[in-house]
Design brief:
The protein is an alpha/beta fold and about 180 residues long. The chain has three helices and 19 strands.
């Protein structure tokens, strides 16, 4: 089970549940949610998790954050690995199986897609999507090109454990079962 360092701090309105480890000097600000109920979350030292960020561990994809990382407000980190000294700006999303290399930057509302690897020092521009291994950068208007890469990354299998083409009814039945313990 996780451990919160005595040298870390968590705001009174933040929510930490399940298997969460928080290193020394790390700060979790108001409204942030760290959900380690379905898989572990491990956060290194001197990390700032800003307001309303959501971090979620998954059984097959723990969320791991290195040292000296900024996790901006309204971000979503789900089953991802983030190396040291990464900057994650407001609204960025990192999906299961993704990895952000040391010193990478994910700018406002950017996406690191499922099973994609962002090289050390790489920058994902505002609103762009990084997909593939190694990640290729796509502007939002390049959807057809992105789909060519994205469809090989197995989003439904990685995120929901189902083959592509599974009905939303089946996916949501599974999701409902997964989250039944929350209420």
């Amino acid at each position: 089970m996780g451990h919160i360092s005595s040298k870390a701090s968590v705001a009174s309105t933040a929510v930490i549940t399940g298997d969460v480890t928080l290193g020394p000097g790390s700060r979790v600000l108001h409204g942030a949610v760290l959900d380690g109920d379905n898989g572990p979350i491990s956060i290194g030292s001197d990390v700032v998790v800003m307001e309303h960020a959501l971090l979620r561990g998954r059984g097959s994809h723990p969320t791991t954050v290195g040292d000296a990382v900024l996790i901006g407000p309204h971000t979503h980190l789900n089953g991802t690995t983030v190396s040291d000294e990464v900057f994650i700006a407001t609204g960025a999303s990192l999906f299961p199986g993704s990895r952000a290399g040391r010193g990478a930057e994910l700018r406002i509302n950017s996406v690191l897609h499922v099973n994609s690897v962002l090289r050390p020092g790489a920058v994902v521009p505002i609103g762009w999507i990084a997909a593939g291994d190694p990640a290729e950068l796509f502007s939002p208007d390049r959807h057809d090109e992105l789909w060519e890469v994205q469809q090989t990354l197995d989003f439904p299998g990685t995120v929901y454990g189902v083959p592509r083409g599974t009905s939303m009814r089946e996916i949501m039945r599974r999701q409902s079962d997964l989250y039944r313990h929350v209420i």
